[in-house]
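Q&A log
Question type: sequence-to-structure
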Amino acid sequence: MDPSQYHFDIAAYNQNREIEENYIVNRFRERRNKISEDNAPRSRKYLNRDHAAANQRLIDDYFANEPTYDDAMFRRRYRMKKNVFLRIVGDLSSSDNYFTQRVDAANKEGISPLAKCTTTMRMLAYGVAADAVDEYIKIGGTTALECLRRFCKGIIRLDDWEY
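Response status: OK
Response body:
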């Protein structure tokens, strides 16, 4: 075959390339719009648990200068002395950033270290489900499980050498 028979038409090539690019861009936009439409109704349900009020109630009940419940009641409910519990909270707070009280993106006060450790201790002491602690301490089930997981890892990391 004679090479002169093959003629490359640059104008036709550019036109075809432009058509293909427009097609790809339009398909991409259609997919992106469809994905955003599909995701729109699936927003998270927000529960205002009022962590600050729950934390204040916890402090008033057990940790204030004149708490509602005395040391004997604390020992019965937490299955340990208050000073041991506070030492654990302090050790975890100083070694793991998760056990510090922070402010979230909406400038709302987060869950206190006392509430996180109280959640964990109640789950361990009474064998209750994670979502059962929501009524008093105002922590959701998944957060309670995360508290339990981080608490156990923290205690093992801190006290493994001693016990």
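Response note: The radius of gyration is 29 Å.
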